[in-house]
Design a protein that fits this description.
By secondary structure, the protein is α+β, with helices and mostly antiparallel strands. It is 40% helix and 18% strand. The radius of gyration is 21 Å and the shape is globular.
Length: 361
């Protein structure tokens, strides 16, 4: 098995950038991890967030991963089903493996990798097979949707000490629901009165995801950086987190460790013993990271001010309905949106829409 040392990572990065200049290569930066447990991650396409789908070399194998908190949502299920249909597993050269207890979302090239040359050959073969399928899916999935762009108002950035974001509602014609499509900064998102509904799964982000998020958000960019999509449901003055809890809570933990006070989301009750363990352990990981990379605590607040303005999200807000939902309906809210709301969610993920909105700004 090829162990991941710094020189191996650099060799892979040079090879990938020479062959596919648009792809990014990242490596787990946990210096305490065993070499056999480290991993190298490579983007599949710039049209999809790396947290949704990426190639990963881990423990001697090259795999395609659909993971993160986005795993299991409507768009990812469509992508998974498309790949499942078009990837040949009869020859057993490519096989789907268990992933969080389900046999989907993890495709492996059944070839043990022993040295950098074998990894280069595997990348050429795997990427050459999978990438065209993903690009074809994106073209077929997003072209032809009967969607009209709704006006999106850029929310005014508040000062660090004053967070009161405005959420602009766009009423849907012929639909009982009102749906808002917003681009909000991290500062504006955390200024909302966020709540974690009882039917949501517990907080359980693993170490790997926390470390990747830390590496991602602290990269100096000098411009706004989209960190995916969050789905909220407005209830009076509160906003229930429908999708995005794991990432949002982790970001709140990071900002609290950096010295930002009064983060309302962290006042939520984590009743599950398992969730409390994850919160405690991830706070420990965050402290280790900050002490190693940002030991000067006095300068951390300046970094916080930059991060909360630079990081932005596509936020879909479902307005509260007068109909009282049963518990079973609440548990199914992730997948029981109206057809129109689902189309709005697809619009948010549509890379063509994202490119258009970026150029407008």
């Amino acid at each position: 098995m090829l162990y991941i040392y710094p020189e191996v990572v650099e060799s892979v990065r040079r090879f990938v950038h020479k062959r596919w200049p648009e792809k990014e290569v990242t490596c787990q930066r946990n210096e305490y991890a065993w070499h056999q447990n480290r991993f190298i991650k490579i983007t599949v396409t710039s049209r999809l967030d790396v947290s949704i789908i990426h190639y990963e070399y881990l423990q001697g194998y090259l795999e395609l991963h659909l993971e993160g908190e986005c795993y299991g949502n409507y768009d990812n299920q469509c992508l998974y089903k498309y790949l499942r249909k078009h990837i040949d597993t009869q020859s057993r050269e490519y096989l789907w493996h268990q992933w969080y207890g389900m046999k989907q979302g993890r495709l492996r090239l059944e070839q043990t990798i022993e040295d950098p040359l074998e990894l280069a050959d595997a990348l050429t073969k795997f990427i050459g097979y999978v990438n065209p399928l993903v690009e074809k899916f994106l073209d077929e999935y997003y072209i032809g949707e009967d969607l009209e762009e709704q006006p999106t108002t850029e929310s005014q950035i508040a000062s660090f000490d004053e967070c009161s974001p405005a959420v602009h509602t766009v009423p849907e014609v012929g639909c009982e629901e009102k749906v808002s499509l917003e681009t909000l900064s991290l500062k504006e998102v955390l200024a909302l009165n966020l709540k974690i509904p009882d039917y949501q799964r517990i907080y359980c982000w693993p170490q790997k995801n926390v470390e990747l998020l830390l590496d991602d958000i602290f990269q100096p960019r000098g411009h706004r950086y989209h960190l995916g999509t969050i789905i909220l449901q407005k209830k009076g003055y509160d906003y229930d987190i429908i999708d995005g809890q794991q990432r949002t809570v982790t970001l709140a933990l990071i900002l609290r460790a950096m010295g930002m006070a009064e983060i309302g989301l962290l006042n939520e009750s984590f009743d599950s013993v398992e969730a409390q363990k994850y919160v405690g352990y991830n706070r420990h990981l965050i402290e280790l990271y900050l002490n190693r990379h940002y030991p000067n605590t006095a300068k951390r607040i300046d970094i916080v001010k930059r991060i909360i303005k630079e990081i932005t999200f596509y936020v879909l807000i479902l307005q509260d309905s007068s109909k009282k939902m049963s518990q079973s309906e609440k548990r199914g809210v992730n997948t029981a949106w109206s057809t129109k709301a689902r189309k709005h969610a697809k619009l948010l993920h549509n890379p063509l829409y994202r490119c258009a909105k970026t150029k407008e700004k």
